[in-house]
User: What shape does this take?
Amino acid sequence: MLKAKYIFVTGGVSSSLGKGIISASLAKLLQARGFSVTIQKLDPYINVDPGTLNPYEHGECYVTEDGAETDLDLGHYERFLNVPTSQANNITTGRIYQSVIEKERRGDYLGQTVQVIPHITDEIKYRIKLLGNTGQFDFVITEIGGTVGDIESLPYIEAVRQMKWELGASCLVIHLTLVPFLAAAGELKTKPTQHSVKTLLESGVQPDIIVCRTERHLSQSLREKISLFCNVSPSSVIESIDAETIYEVPLLMRDEKLDLEVLKKVSIPAEREPDLKRWEEFLYKLKHPASEVSIGLVGKYIELRDAYKSIVESFIHAGAANDCKVNIVRIHSESIDESTVGSRLQNLDGILVAPGFESRGIEGKIIAIQYARERNIPFLGICLGMQCAVIEFARNVLKMVNAHSTEMDKRTPYPVIDIMEAQKKISGMGGTMRLGSYPCQIVKETLTHSIYGKVQITERHRHRYEFNNKYLQDFEAKGLMASGINMKDNLVEIMELQGHPWFIGIQFHPEYKSTVACPHPLFVGFVGAAKKSRGSSSAI
Ligand code: GLN
Assistant: This one.
């Protein structure tokens, strides 16, 4: 094991250039060369974590094994590396300030004025080095959220400057910029990159490598121009051209020799080529599907590209595993009612009802589930999606009029979904749900058992409400069975419908655990069932 090297990834010119994907791709290349790598995201906003942000603000909230509610980039890190992240991998300004203020109140700085420099920057550096000091990683890649020049990023850039000064060649900075193509001029423009590097230089940070996001190839002369104006060698100007899929980016970065450039700068000999055989096989399958299916994604954040990120990526992994392209048809749950359900859900080979909170769109989700149940369409309900399946079954099969979850209707006569005992005394919102990984025991000889192929599993959770065990016998008598139980707290984690080809609701989030190397069995099984359903309906 080497002493950890620190790689910072900053961004300039514009947001959404793909710092997370570049970080994950570099990490993948280094991992494929045999190094152990972790990736960390520093977010400059004041929320202590993104758990309290609604998806309109920041896309999906990703959950780690140890129950951190994090930025969705951590999902990319795990999906690329197949290595779990943790609380230490996502730090916000809110968390930094919270711990500095706690220390101040404890008296740790007694006598001193507590300031951004050195106290905030020291706390940032401490959080970065924490991962390096575990002794587990050869490389710690730290992605700095936001764009250089933002007021709120300044303490982070200052921390990077100090670390570069203190650690010398063990530390390097990759700056990601945009090289726009101006149609009127008919050429790519380097000026925004030059300005962005100057902004970084104003804070005392010289980037070592510049990655240029572009829609056209960079010529040698353009690379030389960026090299000359930005003080980096031409080989350190890396092209990041728009890709068909994010999973192609590691290969594009390999072709651009980003990993070799990094190794050269931290003086580590490149002993072998990255072994990306399995990655390439996955990519081949992704690009050459033998069949296709259409799966309806029913949710209330349908218009937001990033709201169901991990679900969409899980379908990509499961599609490749099934040699099948998954066309996701996004359906707004508020657009579904008794009169529209037939037209909205027709021609689907599977229906997934998404996780969520609060009552908006809930009735549309319930109607969609009834449609899937009655027409034998493969169905997967995740978290709120599972809870809606329980409500639908209670109302329409068990004839429990106005059955509901107490999250939506406190006075329902049939609280088939109810707040968990442990949640009743909690009043604060941040980080207080049932979060992270919990064990679940699967009932043998169920569909769930055949999907997982084992009895003991662990899955990640993010919820406050649960199936109400008071009604379990009623449900099981009519065929909606508990097929996965948390034995310690006696919580129903998985339900499946007997007599239906594939109908499963899960209280946890399998999408957080699907990776390129290990597609999640539930998604693989669901896509397989959708394929079968398409086959049988086209045969009719
Ligand atoms: N709102 C539900 C609960 O808290 C479901 C949460 C979810 O879908 N993540 O239990």
Remarks:
- The pocket of glutamine is lined by residues 355-357, 383-384, 407, 462-465 (CB under 6 Å).
- Residues 161 and 205 are 5 Å apart (CA to CA).
